[in-house]
């Protein structure tokens, strides 16, 4: 397991890879109340290119990964399982583009929903979702949870 960690540190820099006591307790589990455990390592990429590089390295080493964002989810999807690397997207914040012609907004995964709502409103658009946690929930988590809900609904309907 040290080979994958050494390769991650070499590719992303030591400041982007934490292990042991350097991993904050908040990354042991989300708000679901499920069993908390420390990940093998916590990786903080600074760009989508670094996310891609991290995934490439972990795949080459057969290393399992769990993606983490705001850690506010109630579905347990951000909880590390034994020996998993946690991929924190918390540095990926911001609205990258608003395209008026196609009426789309492109944002990074850890951008809070409230920021997206404000950017959309300033551009003359309305963001189609709203949650009480708009100030803390992230768009990446919103999308991931929606996908989980769609799958669960489909399985209930199709039986």
TrEMBL record:
Protein species of origin: Microvirga splendida
InterPro entries in UniProt: FAD-bd_PCMH, FAD-bd_PCMH-like_sf, FAD-bd_PCMH_sub1, FAD-bd_PCMH_sub2, FAD-oxidored/transferase_4, Oxid_FAD_bind_N
Q: Any idea which UniProt keywords this protein has?
A: FAD, Flavoprotein, Oxidoreductase
User: Could you identify this protein by its name?
Assistant: FAD-binding oxidoreductase
Where does the record place the FAD-binding PCMH-type domain? Answer: 35-159
Cofactors (names): FAD
């Amino acid at each position: 397991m040290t080979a994958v960690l050494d390769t991650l540190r070499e590719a992303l820099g030591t400041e982007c890879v934490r292990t042991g006591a350097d991993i904050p307790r908040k990354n042991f589990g989300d708000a679901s109340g499920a069993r908390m455990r420390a990940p093998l390592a916590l990786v903080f990429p600074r760009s989508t290119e670094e996310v891609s590089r991290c995934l490439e390295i972990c795949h080459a080493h057969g290393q399992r990964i769990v993606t983490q964002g705001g850690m506010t989810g109630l579905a347990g999807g951000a909880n590390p399982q034994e020996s998993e690397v946690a991929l924190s997207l918390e540095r990926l914040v911001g609205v990258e583009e608003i395209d008026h012609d196609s009426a789309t907004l492109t944002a990074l995964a850890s951008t809070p929903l409230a920021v997206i709502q404000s950017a959309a409103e300033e551009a003359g658009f309305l963001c189609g979702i709203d949650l009480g946690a708009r100030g803390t929930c992230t768009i990446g988590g919103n999308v991931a949870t929606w996908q989980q809900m769609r799958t669960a609904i489909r399985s209930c309907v199709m039986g």
